[in-house]
């Protein structure tokens, strides 16, 4: 019976600490950003991106010059890509796709992939959950 009381007290302590932790969570708020105000990056030769972090995902807007390519890479988050302009060869795992305007490509977490711009191209990526890459104070 004594171990039951110990277990009950431990459970109560855990419940109280979880409740206290939940009360300290900062409520997400909406933000309005203009693409022109977002800092640009140049992750690969001929590829330019702008990234916005939300609370559980991040979005990257990409512009690629014809002939440019990302390096082969993977990441711990799932990725959805919506292609806007141009044509891109997408190498995903063992598969190859030619994608263009209005195509949507889903890439699972940890799958090696590479994008090669056949023409000048633009697309938007959504990565989730995006907090693997979030830096403190970025786009807050």
Tell me about this structure:
This protein has 140 residues and is an alpha+beta fold. The chain is built from one helix and nine strands; from the N terminus they run H-E-E-E-E-E-E-E-E-E. The strands form two sheets. Strands 1-2-3-9-4-7 form a six-stranded antiparallel beta sheet, with no helix packed on it. A three-stranded antiparallel beta sheet has the order 6-5-8, with no helix packed on it. The longest helix is centred in the first third of the chain and has 22 residues, at 2-23.
Quick overview of this protein structure:
By secondary structure, the protein is an alpha+beta fold. 16% of the residues lie in helices and 39% in strands.
Full CATH superfamily name: Jelly Rolls
Q: What is the H/E string?
A: HEEEEEEEEE
Distance between the ends = 51 Å
Q: Strand order, biggest sheet?
A: 1-2-3-9-4-7
CATH class equals Mainly Beta
Count of the separate structural domains: 1
Q: What CATH architecture do you see?
A: Sandwich
What is the global morphology? Answer: globular
Overall average residue pLDDT = 83
Total helix count? Answer: 1
Chain oligomer state: single chain
**What fold name goes in the CATH topology slot?**
Jelly Rolls
What is the beta-strand fraction? 35-45%
| Number of E-state strands | 9
